[in-house]
Amino acid sequence: MTRLEKITIRKAAVSDLPNMLRIMDEALESSTIDDEMEQRVERWSAKFNNKLQFVFYVAEVDDENLVGWCRGGQTIECHQTVAPQIYDCEIQNIFIRQQYQRRGIGRELWKIVWNDILLIFHPKNFVVWSVDKEQAHRFYLSLGGVQAEKSKFGEYFQTAFIWSDLKPFEFTNFLIFK
User: Fold this and answer.
1) What CA–CA distance (Å, rounded) separates 25 from 158?
2) Quick check: 94 pLDDT over 60?
3) 24, 69, 78, 80: which is deepest, by most CB within 10 A?
4) Strands 146-153 vs 89-96: parallel, antiparallel or unpaired
5) Under a CB-based contact definition with an 8 Å cutoff, are residues 78 and 92 in contact?
6) CA angle at 87 for the pair 95 and 58, rounded to the nearest 5°
7) What integer is the mean pLDDT of 6-29?
């Protein structure tokens, strides 16, 4: 018999940062030793506490186990310009643990962060710089993004997806606690 899991999406807390960074490491296939983790948590705390620029949400299973997270907000400077338009806001990070992908969790996190960004920042346009993976590209296309250009950030190529028609999502299929 299959057990149904309760998925909850809520605003992230600073105490979630170590687990959020581990999920990011899994997705990017990198690892962090404990000493580095403390430094990373410290650096990310500054971003986390900047409520004027970013919003963070997490998805958890059965009220304890983080399975994904999403950060969005005002576009960071190096991401603003895409063919040659300036973009106001972006989703900077969205990560879902491999075993929880293709269940709609990423889409629901996206909707909630998207709606919050529309309410808080009132952008006129929107951009996402995606890792160069076909699955990620399909995800952004399914959300209405238009593939715009490819650029190199550090050692990785990323593809820009843009939105100009910004409308809030009407509903969500998950429990949300803000």
Assistant:
1) 17
2) yes
3) 69
4) unpaired
5) no
6) 20
7) 89
Q: Which amino acid is at 27?
A: A
Strand 126-131 to 146-153 pairing:
unpaired
Q: What is the pTM of this model?
A: 0.86
Residue 78: pLDDT band (50, 70, 90) is confident
C-alpha span between 176 and 172 (Å, rounded): 8
Residue 137 and residue 133: Cα distance in Å, rounded? 6
The 10 Å Cβ neighbour count of residue 67 is: 22
Residues 54, 71 contacting (CB under 8 angstroms): yes
Predicted local distance difference test score (pLDDT) of residue 139:
93
The answer to whether residues 68 and 61 touch, using CB atoms and an 8 Å cutoff, is no
- How many Cα atoms occupy the beta-carbon half-sphere of 95 within 13 Å? 19
DSSP run (H or E) holding 9: strand 7-11
Residue 1 has a pLDDT of 45
Spatial CA neighbour of 46 closest among 77, 26, 71 = 71
Within 13 A of 88's CA, how many CA atoms are on the CB side? 13
Query: Distance between CA 34 and CA 24 in Å, rounded?
Result: 15
Alpha helices (runs of H) in 11-104, residue ranges in sequence order: 17-28, 34-48
Distance CA 172, CA 167 (A): 14
